[in-house]
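thought: fold this chain, then report.
action: predict
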Amino acid sequence: MSADLHDQGMTSLLAWVLIDNPSLAFYKKLGGVELERGTYTIGGQTLENVAMGWTDTHHLLELLEEE
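observation:
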């Protein structure tokens, strides 16, 4: 996905991730930076989330190729 976005000239990326999502550590390992926190409510349950961002998708692609 990030390769396609980069090829289309989109050089940054933002992903909203639930705070309790175990994949949050993976995003951080790939250089994602916490930009903002928020909450939303679904079915009466309030969930915390965080916006993880990358300012350079080229660097992200390099890291993904190493995995």
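thought: worth noting. The chain has one domain: 2-66.
final: tokens above.
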